[in-house]
Amino acid sequence: MNNINKLSIEELMAIAKQPIKENDEFKHLPPVRRFIASDKIAYGDVKIPAMLVYDRYIKWANNNKIEVLSKVKFFQELALYFTKIKVTNGFVYLMGPDGFNLSPEYLELINADRKRNFHGKKKKTKKEHKN
Length: 131
Known about the structure:
CATH superfamily: Winged helix-like DNA-binding domain superfamily/Winged helix DNA-binding domain
Order of helices and strands: HHEHHEEHH
Largest sheet: 3 strands, antiparallel
Number of domains: 1
CATH topology: Arc Repressor Mutant, subunit A
Shape: elongated
Strand order of the largest sheet: 1-3-2
CATH class: Mainly Alpha
Radius of gyration: 20 Å
Helix content: 40-55%
């Protein structure tokens, strides 16, 4: 690699304009473990709602141009790394709070979105299941 002191202003500007890439040291990990490691999610004693974790995962995956896992697959893998607790309105995971928006307003938005997605799904007919 070139010595940074020997690079021209144009070369330095070209480097600065390159998109920030996910750290290569995590590329070999399974998707959820990769998300945990690269986003520095830590085990903790704060109850983080499952949909808040999935929302953060989707944003991370999209930013890193990684195919988003289904909710089922994501939560199956996440349960390997964090304690999952059943609560009245779903599940929470014991994690550190860093990087999570735990404001009541944001949690309300996430919960409303979860309810809209759950109740807004149309049941498939037998014909639709065959296709």
